[in-house]
Specification:
The chain is α/β, with parallel strands linked by helices. The protein has two domains: 231 residues, P-loop containing nucleotide triphosphate hydrolases (Rossmann fold, 3-Layer(aba) Sandwich); 39 residues, no CATH class. The strands form three sheets. The protein has a seven-stranded mixed beta sheet with strand order 6-7-8-3-9-10-11, sandwiched between helices. It has a four-stranded antiparallel beta sheet with strand order 2-1-4-5, covered by helices on one side. A hairpin with a 2-residue loop joins β1 and β2. The protein binds adenosine-5'-triphosphate. The site of adenosine-5'-triphosphate has 12 residues, from β1, β2 and α2. InterPro entries: AAA+_ATPase, ABC_transporter-like_ATP-bd, ABC_transporter-like_CS, ABC_transpr_LolD-like, MacB-like_ATP-bd, P-loop_NTPase, SpoVT-AbrB_dom. Keywords: ATP-binding, DNA-binding, Nucleotide-binding, Transport. It holds the Pfam family ABC_tran. GO terms for molecular function: ATP binding.
């Protein structure tokens, strides 16, 4: 690896003071994000066995985003969602949503957080709605429970209920109980319930998991409507590639950490004038400079244990470890003669 010759210049007291002042004035990690997870850890202990469900997960979500979280089974998605929903507490790290510190909330703040700051929609349609209440009563309930906030009085609440049911195209279900509705209708009513108190964030854990692909598309459109019309920030955990392809940003979780993310943007073809979506995958880099290489890249090049790095003017090259084949040789500016990238 090429390294710069170390400087013999010793910092003076003034230099050190200036560095400390610069560090202090630097904005904190995630200062402009609505959701900040900073080195989040969640360890479960069952019968003396420890499972590290989250292993230092970093995630920033900006206000107004509509994004998806994907990952293999057991990667930690639901653990993260339960923490963001205020249902579970992390073991270590930091998690902040709309100024609420999720590790240091009092019981009273936690209750308010769950009623007014986040709304959630779960995969099991039966978990989202009370079976003995009609759609309209289900949507009105969070407003009644939250007391002070939101529309006051029966009439104002009834108007808000109808606005939400109409926006989500289930106004005709207002007087039906969940068992009198289809799975898709139930999930749309569940979104209305989650939006009742105008939360900053809408969280959904596999909301289309129990639905056929056509209905899943309609449910995804309902989340988009909430995001575009109400400005609600939406985070959806999904296995559904079609849903993941529809959002601008998809973050992948692997082994309890965010590993890669795909960003999509629309581009207009200069020749034809047609609009097309261009996507690009990025690896996550933490503040200490750590990143995870995609497993398939490592497999393809037989990389393990250590790799050789090379700083180029505009990128960093990564090579498989060739120290044994090059036994005795000294590495200068490139692992082999000439460039290999
Ligand atoms: N309450 C718990 N007690 C013990 N271990 C748990 C608990 N909840 C989750 N885990 C473990 O933590 C890890 C992450 O689980 P999690 O449910 O967050 O994964 P997931 O990505 O949501 O998976 P899936 O897609 O299957 O729902 C798994 O190894 C799981 O067994």
């Amino acid at each position: 690896m090429t390294t710069k010759p170390s400087s013999t210049h010793r910092p003076t007291l003034d230099d050190l003071e200036r560095r400390v002042a610069e560090d202090r004035s630097r904005p904190a990690y995630g200062h402009d994000a609505l959701i900040t997870c900073d080195r989040l850890v969640r360890i479960f202990s069952t019968d003396g066995v420890e499972v590290q469900a989250l292993q230092g997960l970093d995630l920033l979500v900006r206000e107004g985003e509509l994004m998806a979280l994907v990952g293999a089974s057991g990667s930690g998605k639901s653990t993260l969602m339960n923490i963001l929903a205020g249902l579970d507490t992390p073991t270590a790290g930091a998690a902040r949503v709309a100024q609420y510190d999720l590790l240091a909330m009092s019981a009273k703040d936690r209750l308010r957080y769950r009623r007014e700051v986040v709304g959630f929609v779960w995969q099991q349609t039966s978990r989202n709605l009370l079976p003995y209440l009609t759609a309209a009563q289900n949507v009105a309930l969070p407003m009644q429970l939250s007391g002070g906030r939101g529309p006051r009085g029966r009439r104002a609440r009834a108007e808000r209920v109808m606005e939400l049911l109409e926006m989500l195209q289930v106004a005709d279900c207002r007087d039906r109980r969940p068992r009198q509705m289809s799975g898709g209708q139930q999930q749309r009513v569940a979104i209305a319930v989650a939006l009742a108190n105008d939360p900053a964030v809408l969280l959904a854990d596999e909301p289309t998991g129990e639905l056929d692909s056509h209905t899943a598309e309609e449910i995804f459109a309902a989340f988009r409507t909430a995001n575009e019309r109400l400005g609600t920030t939406v985070v959806i955990v999904t296995h559904d590639q079609a849903v993941a392809n529809e959002v601008r940003r998809t973050v992948a979780i692997r082994d309890g950490r965010t590993s890669t993310e795909v960003l999509r943007r629309s581009e207009v073809d200069a020749a034809t004038g047609d609009e097309r979506v261009v996507s690009r995958e990025y690896a996550m880099l933490d503040r200490a400079g750590r990143m995870q290489l995609p497993a398939e890249y490592m497999q393809a090049l037989g990389m393990r244990d250590r790799v050789a790095l090379e700083l180029e003017p505009d990128h960093i090259a990564v090579w498989p470890d060739d120290s044994e084949t090059r036994d005795g040789e000294t590495r200068d500016s490139a692992p082999h003669d000439g460039r290999r990238d």
